[in-house]
C-alpha cells in the first residue's frame, strides 16, 4: 500500500493546492515555484492534520518518518542542521488553513534554539545580544503556545529585569540581561510544567506541530469559523520554514513594498524599509521606517533585486502585489506576497496600465475594478489623512462632502449665500418651500427622514451632499442651534462638514479632495462600453444634471422628473394657486403661467441631450406636497385663535388649513398621485405635454436633434394608460401641427405598481416602453414605506439576517425580480417592439444591474454620478 | 327562390325566437302557444326591419304581400275586418326589440278607426263617448308618432274644449265634446301635414309600421343603445295585435297581478284591479284600484280564470309572474307577463315553495336567490313604506338601520345610554379612544373616512350600523351641532336615523322593520350547504360576534383580530403605558396587566366556537393607533404654550407629543405593523400567545373542545414567519406544559403583502395555513390606500369605466387574483397539507367567492352578517 504523501517541500506545491497545503503553504509553494527567493521549507498537509484528529490526537502512520525526511532534506538544502551548535538550523512553525483565519491560530519562531545552539547562533552572527534575544523570544512563544505557560509571567520577568537595570525599553537591555532573562524563563517553565524546557530540537518541533494542529480547535478559532461559515472538519496545514533575520546589522533589514502606488496607481515601487530590524520592530513603531526609494542608495543591489522581484510577482500573479520581505546580510528574502489593497483611483489606473503592459487583457481589467468604488472619484471627498472632529452620523443620502456655515432656514441660507458664504442647511426635514434654500446651500443635513425623504431626493437630483435622518442631532429652532450626543452645541454660523457618502458630520471645515477623472478612468469605461449590452441613461431633471450625465457617458435621460419644475420660489406660489383654484378657469390661468417656465426647462434639457432620448415623466407626487405642511398650519391657526388679534389672517389661514386637510392623505404613497392625477386633472398633464413639445418643436426648427418621450407614472391598469396615451398624443400632435414640425411621439409607462407588472401584457399593448420604477415597486411589493421602514425596522431586518440586503439598495430578486421577469416576458410577447428599462435607484447598483442584464432589459437609468458605475457594472454583467 | 318568412302569427312563434321576434313578440307568442288568452296578432320580424333599412327605407320584397296576408288571417280569426264599419278590426302597433329598451320607441293604439268605423265601434259597444274618445286618442298618437304633429297642439285643443264647456277633467267631457275634438284634430293634422288625416286603415297600418321601424333610429333610442352597449344593427320587430278594451262597462276592467306576494313570497294572488278602465287610467291615478281579492266577488268567473292562468304561467315560466290583464265584457285577456320583481324575503320563500311544489328543483331554487340580497334579511331595516326626511348621504359602511339622539362625543354617548337613551355617535372620524362611545351607541355617523376607516371597521366588527365619510355634514363641535346641505341644523339630542346599508341619513326616528329569519331561509341555506365545497368561517373578535356567526352557520372563526382586545376604556391606558414604557421592565408590567384581560376574551370566544377552529391573528396595527391623535396633541400643546398657565401639564403633553412624533409614520399602512412588530417587540406576541393558550388549556381541562390556531399578519419574507412560528410554538408549548394539557399547535400566516404571494413556496414550508388578507393585498397590488382612494379618485375610476368594479368590493381577478392563484399553486406544491382560505372583505362577496371556489380555496371567512351570503354564494359557485 502506497502511503499518501503527507508533507510537501515548497518546491513541490503550487497555488492550486490550497485545499491540501492551506492558503499560506500554497502561496509559499507558488512563490518558490516562480523562482523567487523564499526561505526554504515544507508544509504538512491538512489531510495529515485530519488524520491526526481522526487518530484521537496521535501521530498518523508515517507522518513522523515523513517529517524526519523533510527535515533532513531541509538541512541538506540549507547546509544547516537542527541542533548543530556550529550551523544551527532555526525554523518558524506556522499554521495555514484553507480559508484565511487571520490571528486565530498560533505561530512559533526561532525553533531549534537551545542552550548550545544559542551559542552557535551568537558565534555565526557575531551578535551575542541578538542570539540571546532570539532564544528568550523562542522560550516565551513556545512556553505560551506549546506548554501553556501564561504569557504574563514571561513579561513580568522582563519587567523585573528592566527595573533591576533601571531602564525603560527592551532595546536598552544587553546580551547579558537577555541571558539572565533566559535563565529565569527556563526556571519559570520548569516550575509551571514540572519539566525542564525541552532542549532537543526534534522534541521542540514535534511539540510545535502538535500545538499548531490543536490550535484548529481553540475557542477563538471555533467561534471565528462559526461566524464565517467555515466548515469544522477541514483541519489546518503546518508550515515549517527556515528563519531569516533582518536584524543582523546594517546589511540587513525588513520592509513592505507595493509593486505600484496603492493610493494613486502610479507604476512605481512604493513602500517602507527599516534597516537592521525585524518585522515586529516595524509594527512596534519604535523606529520610523524610510521610504523604499532610500534602499536604492543604501543597498542598490537589493533594490535592483526588489524591482526585479516586483516585476516578476506582478507578471506571475497578474496583479499589483503587497510584499513582505527581509534582507539578511545583503540577501533578499520574500516572506509573503498578496494582492494589494488599493484606492479606487489606484485600482483604475493599475488595471488599465496592467492591460496596456500586456499583463492582463481588457476583460480582466474591467473585472479588476469594483464599479461601486468609482463614485469615490466623482465627488469631492474628505481627505483621508485629515484629523476630524466627529459630531454625529446620519444616513448617507446624497454622496459628496461639503463644508459651510450652519443655517436653520432657507431664507437665511439664501441671504448668506448671496453674501458669498458657503452654508449647510440644517432642518428637521425639508419641504418644497425650502427648495431655494437647498439651491443656495453646499449641502443639507436633516434630523428626520430617510433615503427617499424630500431632502434626499432633491439633493441627489441637484448633486448636492446630503445627510438625512441624523436623529442624534437635536435642533432648537428658536435658539437657532443644535445639540449633539456628546452635549456640544452648534450655533448658527458655526462651520461643519458633512459627508453624504458616509453620513458623517464633522465640526469645522474638513480638508476636501477634488474629484479626479483620469485618462485611465475614461479608457477603462470605454473598454467596458464595447462589451456591455445594456444602455446606460441618466435620471436628470435639469440642464446642469443632463450635461453632467452626458459628461459621464449617459446615452440619454431615462427619467426626467417634472415635479421639480413646479418648485422654486418663482413657481411654487403659482402651483399653489393652481391647486387652491376654486374653478377651472382659475386653475387654467395658473397653468398658463407655468407653461413658459416649463418650456424653458425642457429647452435646456433637450439641448443638453441633443441627439439622445429624453424620457419625461409627467407629474407624479400628490398635490399636497406643494402646499404648506399641515402641522405647521395647525400650530399657526391655533396661535392666531389664542391671540385673537388678527382675524383676517386667521380666516385666510383657516381656509388654507381646510384645503390642506381635504388634500391630506393617510398613506400618500398609495394616494392621489401619478396617473391618478392625470386622470382626474387632465389639464395638468396637458400643459406639461404642451410645454415639452413646444420646446422640442422650437429646437427642432432650429436644427437641434431632439428625441422626447413621455412617461406616465403609477399606471396600474391598462385603461389608465390607454386614456392618457390618447390625451398625450392628441396634445402633442396639436402642438407639432401648430409649429409645423414633425417628430415621432413616444408614450410609455413606469411599471412601479405590482398590478402593472401582473398585467404587463395588457399594458404593453398601450406602451412604447416600460421603465421599472423599482423604488416604488419595492415599497409596494414588500409593503414597506421606505421612510418609515428605514428608521423603524429595516435596519433590524438586515442586521438580524431576515433580509440579505436592504431591498432599496439591492434589488430583491425572489420577489420584486420575479415581477420584473414576468413583466418583461409578457410585455415583449404582447408588444415585440417594447423598449424595457429601469429607472429606480437600483439602476445604479452593480448587483441589481447584473440582474437587469440577465433579465434582458434594454437599459438602466441612474443618477448622473452613478452613470460610470452603471457603465462598468453593465460591462461586467455582460462578461458574466 | 323561397321567400324568407317575414311575419309570424303569435301562434307560430315561441320564447326561443327572441332574436327574430323581439322580446315582446316572443313573449306574446309563448303565451299564445301555452294556450293562454292573448288577443290575436302577429309580429313583423327584426329581419324584415333590417331589410327595410338595407333597402334605404323601402318595403322589402314580399313584405307588403305578407302583411296583407297576415291581416286577412287576423280578420278571419277575430271575425272582424279592418275598415268594416259594422265589425271594425282595431289593432295596436308596437315596437319590440331583442333587448328591452323601455319607453325608447313608439306605440300606436286603436289603429283602424276612421270617420266610418268610429260609428261602427259606437254601435257595437253601445257607447258613443267611448268610441269618440278612442278615435281622438288614435288621431293624437298617430299624428304625433307617424305624422310628426307636435303633441302640445293636440293638448291645446282639448284644453280649449274643456274651457268652452267650463269643465276641468277629461272625464267630464261628453261624446259630443270628443266629436268636436276629433273634428279639430283632423283640421290640425291637415293644416300641419297639408293632407287630410288618412282614412284608409291599410294606409294607416303601413304608416304605423314605417314609423315603428324608423323609431329604431330616433335619437333617444340611439343614445340608449350607446349607453347600454346594444348593437346598432339589430333592428326592431313590430307587433300588431287586436285591441281589447277594459272600459266597456262594469263587466270590463284592467289590472296587474303577481302570482305570489312580491313582498313576502306568500303563495297567494296579489295585485290590483280597476273596474271599467284602461291601463292608462290605472297609471293616471285618478281612481284608486281595488285589491285583486275583490275581483272574486265582482267577477267570480274571471277571478277563477285568473287563478288558473297564474298557476299555468308559473308552471310554464317556472317562476313568479307579474301579469298585466284586461277584462273585456267578462272575458279575460293577458297582455303581458314577466318574472316578478320581489324582495329578498319573497325571493327566498318563493324559491323554496316553488321547489317544494315541484315546479323547480333545489339547484334551481339556490340559483334563484341573489346571495347579496340576504343581508337585507339579517338587519333591522327602514320600512320601505315610510315617508322619510332625508338629510344627507355618506358611504354605507356597516349594514343595518338605527335611530337615536345625536351625540358628539363618546362620553356623552355613554352618559345618555346609561340613562336609557338610544344615541347615534356623530364624529368627524373616530379613534380608539371613542370605542366606549361606539359600544354605547346604536350607530355611528362620521363626516370623514372611508369603508376601512376606524369607525367602519369597528362598527362592522360590532354589527352596528355605520355611515362614514358623509362629507356634506359639517360638524361644529363647539356649538354641538351639525349642518346639512340644505342649510338645516341638527343639534345634540335631535333624533336621526342612519341606514348603514345605503348610507342615507334621515331626520327623526324612521320606522324600522325587524329581521326575519324564516324557515325557508334556513332551508334554502341547508340545501346550499349540501352542494358547496368551500367552508364558510366568520371574522369575529368577541364572544357575541362569535355566537352570532355560529347562529348564521359559520364553521369556525377564520379571523379573530386581537387589536380590539387592546381597546376599551379599561385597556387603552394600559396599552399606552406599554407603548410609552421607557424600559423593558415597565413594558413587561403593562403586558402582564393585559394578560388576564385577553385570556378572558379568548375564553369567551373559544367557548362560543367550541368544537370549531378559531384562527387568532396576533397584533396587526401600528402602535401609534393606540395613542392620542398627533394633530389634537399639537393643538393642545400650542394652546398650553400660548396660555403659559400650566407648565406641568405642558411638559407632560410635550413629552407625549415627542413620543407620538417618533411613532408617527408617513405611510402607516406600509409601516411598522404586523409581524414587523412581532419581530421588534417579541414580548407583545409572546403575551398574546400565552393568553390564548392559557384560555384554551383552561377550557380543554374543563372538557370543552377547543381548536385555536395562530395567524401571523403581514408576512412578506419566509424568515419572518420562520422566526415567529418558532417563538409561538415555544411559548404555546410552555403554557401547555405548565397546565398539563395537550393540544395541537397550528401556526399560519396572512398572505396580504404581494411579496408573500410571490414567494409563497418558501413561506408555505413554514405554515400550516394561508389566509389571503385581500383588503391589504388589494391595497398593495394596486398601490391604492383605500381610505384615500375612495374619497379622491376611485369613484371616478369606477364611474369612468377604468375599473369594472371597486376592487375592494369585488376581487380583481387579473391582478390580485393572479397573485392568489400563484400562491395557492406554489404553496400547495411546497406543502401539500396547507389549508388555504381568504379572510378579507371579499370573503363575503358572491362574485369573489365564485373566484375562491374556482381557484380551489378550502374556506372563506367573512363578517358574521355575511355568513349566510357566503354559504349561498359558495353553493352557487359549486353549481357552476
TrEMBL record, chains A, B:
It catalyses: pyruvate + phosphate + ATP = phosphoenolpyruvate + AMP + diphosphate + H(+). The keyword GTP-binding does not apply. The active site is at residues 454, 839. This is Pyruvate, phosphate dikinase. Substrate binds at residues 561, 617, 752, 773-776. Belongs to the PEP-utilizing enzyme family. PANTHER family: PHOSPHOENOLPYRUVATE DIKINASE-RELATED (PTHR22931), PYRUVATE, PHOSPHATE DIKINASE 1, CHLOROPLASTIC (PTHR22931:SF9). Keywords: ATP-binding, Kinase, Magnesium, Metal-binding, Nucleotide-binding, Pyruvate, Transferase. GO terms for molecular function: ATP binding; kinase activity; metal ion binding; pyruvate, phosphate dikinase activity. PROSITE patterns: PEP_ENZYMES_2, PEP_ENZYMES_PHOS_SITE. It is an enzyme of class 2 (transferase). Residues 421-503 form the PEP-utilising enzyme mobile domain. Its cofactor is Mg(2+). It comes from the Bacteria. Residues 521-877 form the PEP-utilising enzyme C-terminal domain. Its EC number is 2.7.9.1. Gene3D superfamilies: 1.20.80.30, ATP-grasp fold, A domain, ATP-grasp fold, B domain, Phosphoenolpyruvate-binding domains, Phosphohistidine domain, Pyruvate Phosphate Dikinase, domain 2. InterPro entries: ATP_grasp_subdomain_1, PEP-util_enz_mobile_dom, PEP_util_AS, PEP_util_C, PEP_util_CS, Phosphohistidine_dom_sf, PPDK_AMP/ATP-bd, Pyruvate_phosphate_dikinase. Mg(2+) binds at residues 752, 776. Residues 19-56, 58-293, 304-355 form the Pyruvate phosphate dikinase AMP/ATP-binding domain.
Amino acid at each position: 500500500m502506497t502511503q499518501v504523501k503527507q508533507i510537501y517541500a515548497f518546491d513541490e506545491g503550487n497555488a492550486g493546492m490550497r485545499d491540501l497545503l492551506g492558503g499560506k503553504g500554497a502561496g509559499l509553494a507558488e512563490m518558490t515555484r516562480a523562482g523567487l527567493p523564499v526561505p526554504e521549507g515544507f508544509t504538512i498537509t491538512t489531510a495529515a492534520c485530519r488524520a491526526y484528529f481522526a487518530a484521537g490526537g496521535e501521530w498518523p502512520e508515517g507522518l513522523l518518518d515523513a517529517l524526519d525526511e523533510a527535515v533532513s532534506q531541509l538541512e541538506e538544502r540549507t547546509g544547516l542542521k537542527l541542533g548543530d551548535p556550529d550551523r544551527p538550523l532555526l525554523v518558524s512553525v506556522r499554521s495555514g488553513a484553507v480559508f484565511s483565519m487571520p490571528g486565530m491560530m498560533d505561530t512559533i519562531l526561532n525553533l531549534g534554539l537551545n542552550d548550545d545552539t544559542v551559542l552557535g547562533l551568537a558565534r555565526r552572527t557575531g551578535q551575542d545580544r541578538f542570539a540571546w534575544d532570539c532564544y528568550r523570544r523562542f522560550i516565551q512563544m513556545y512556553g505560551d503556545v506549546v506548554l501553556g505557560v501564561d504569557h504574563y509571567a514571561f513579561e513580568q520577568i522582563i519587567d523585573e529585569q528592566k527595573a533591576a537595570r533601571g531602564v525603560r525599553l527592551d532595546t536598552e537591555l544587553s546580551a547579558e540581561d537577555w541571558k539572565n532573562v533566559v535563565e529565569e524563563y527556563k526556571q519559570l517553565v520548569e516550575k509551571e510544567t514540572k519539566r525542564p524546557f525541552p532542549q532537543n530540537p526534534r522534541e521542540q518541533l514535534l511539540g510545535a506541530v502538535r500545538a499548531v494542529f490543536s490550535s484548529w480547535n481553540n475557542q477563538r478559532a471555533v467561534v471565528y469559523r462559526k461566524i464565517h461559515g467555515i466548515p469544522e472538519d477541514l483541519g489546518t496545514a503546518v508550515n515549517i520554514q527556515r528563519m531569516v533575520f533582518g536584524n543582523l546589522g546594517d546589511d540587513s533589514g525588513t520592509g513592505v513594498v507595493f509593486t505600484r502606488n496603492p493610493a494613486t496607481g502610479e507604476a512605481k515601487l512604493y513602500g517602507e524599509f527599516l534597516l537592521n530590524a525585524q518585522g515586529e520592530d516595524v509594527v512596534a513603531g519604535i523606529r520610523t521606517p524610510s521610504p523604499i526609494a532610500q534602499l536604492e542608495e543604501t543597498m542598490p543591489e537589493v533594490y535592483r533585486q526588489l524591482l526585479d522581484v516586483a516585476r516578476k510577482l506582478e507578471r506571475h500573479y497578474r496583479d499589483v502585489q503587497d510584499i513582505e520581505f527581509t534582507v539578511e546580510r545583503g540577501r533578499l528574502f520574500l516572506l509573503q506576497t498578496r494582492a494589494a489593497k488599493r484606492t479606487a483611483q489606484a485600482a483604475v489606473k493599475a488595471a488599465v496600465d496592467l492591460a496596456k503592459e500586456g499583463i492582463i487583457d481588457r476583460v480582466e481589467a474591467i473585472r479588476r475594478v469594483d464599479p461601486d468604488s468609482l463614485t469615490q472619484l466623482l465627488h469631492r471627498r474628505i481627505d483621508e489623512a485629515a484629523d476630524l472632529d466627529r459630531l454625529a452620523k446620519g444616513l448617507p443620502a446624497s454622496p459628496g462632502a461639503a463644508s459651510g456655515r450652519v443655517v436653520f432656514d432657507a431664507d437665511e441660507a439664501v441671504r448668506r449665500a448671496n453674501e458669498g458664504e458657503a452654508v449647510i442647511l440644517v432642518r428637521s426635514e425639508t419641504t418644497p418651500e425650502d427648495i431655494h434654500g437647498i439651491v443656495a446651500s453646499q449641502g443639507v443635513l436633516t434630523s428626520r427622514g430617510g433615503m427617499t425623504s424630500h431632502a434626499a431626493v432633491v439633493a441627489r437630483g441637484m448633486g448636492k451632499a446630503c445627510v438625512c435622518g441624523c436623529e442624534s442631532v437635536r435642533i432648537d429652532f428658536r435658539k437657532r442651534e443644535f445639540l449633539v450626543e456628546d452635549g456640544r452645541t452648534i450655533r448658527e454660523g458655526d462651520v461643519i462638514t458633512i459627508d453624504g457618502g458616509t453620513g458623517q458630520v464633522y465640526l469645522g471645515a474638513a480638508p476636501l479632495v477634488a474629484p479626479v477623472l483620469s485618462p485611465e478612468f475614461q479608457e477603462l469605461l470605454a473598454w467596458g462600453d464595447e462589451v456591455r449590452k445594456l444602455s446606460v441613461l441618466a435620471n436628470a431633471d435639469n440642464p446642469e444634471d443632463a450635461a453632467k450625465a452626458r459628461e459621464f457617458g449617459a446615452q440619454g435621460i431615462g427619467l426626467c422628473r417634472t415635479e421639480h419644475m413646479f418648485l422654486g420660489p418663482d413657481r411654487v406660489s403659482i402651483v399653489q394657486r393652481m391647486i387652491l383654484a376654486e374653478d377651472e378657469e382659475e386653475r387654467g390661468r395658473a397653468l398658463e403661467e407655468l407653461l413658459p417656465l416649463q418650456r424653458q426647462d425642457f429647452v435646456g434639457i433637450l439641448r443638453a441631450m441633443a441627439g439622445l432620448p429624453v424620457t419625461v415623466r409627467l407629474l407624479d407626487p400628490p398635490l399636497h406636497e406643494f402646499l404648506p405642511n399641515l402641522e405647521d398650519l395647525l400650530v399657526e391657526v391655533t396661535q392666531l385663535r389664542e391671540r385673537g388679534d388678527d382675524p383676517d389672517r386667521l380666516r385666510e389661514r383657516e381656509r388654507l388649513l381646510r384645503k390642506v386637510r381635504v388634500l391630506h392623505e393617510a398613506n400618500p404613497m398609495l394616494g392621489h398621485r401619478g396617473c391618478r392625477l392625470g386622470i382626474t386633472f387632465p389639464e395638468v398633464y396637458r400643459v406639461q405635454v404642451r410645454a415639452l413639445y413646444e420646446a422640442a418643436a422650437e429646437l427642432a426648427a432650429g436644427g437641434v436633434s431632439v428625441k422626447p418621450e413621455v412617461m406616465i407614472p403609477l399606471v396600474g391598469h391598462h385603461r389608465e394608460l390607454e386614456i392618457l396615451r390618447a390625451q398625450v398624443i392628441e396634445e402633442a400632435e396639436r402642438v407639432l401641427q401648430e409649429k409645423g414640425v414633425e417628430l415621432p411621439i413616444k408614450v410609455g409607462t413606469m411599471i412601479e405598481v405590482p398590478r402593472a407588472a401582473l398585467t404587463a401584457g395588457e399594458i404593453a399593448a398601450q406602451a412604447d416602453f416600460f421603465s421599472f420604477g423599482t423604488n416604488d415597486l419595492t415599497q409596494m411589493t414588500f409593503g414597506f414605506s421606505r421612510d418609515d421602514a428605514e428608521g423603524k425596522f429595516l435596519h433590524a431586518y438586515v442586521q438580524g439576517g431576515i433580509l440579505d440586503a436592504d431591498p432599496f439598495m439591492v434589488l430583491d430578486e425572489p420577489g420584486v425580480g420575479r415581477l420584473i421577469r414576468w413583466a418583461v416576458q409578457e410585455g415583449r410577447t404582447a408588444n415585440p417592439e417594447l423598449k424595457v428599462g429601469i429607472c429606480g435607484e437600483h439602476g445604479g447598483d452593480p448587483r441589481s444591474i447584473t440582474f437587469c442584464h440577465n433579465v434582458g432589459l434594454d437599459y438602466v437609468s441612474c443618477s448622473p454620478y452613478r452613470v460610470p458605475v452603471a457603465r462598468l457594472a453593465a460591462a461586467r454583467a455582460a462578461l458574466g
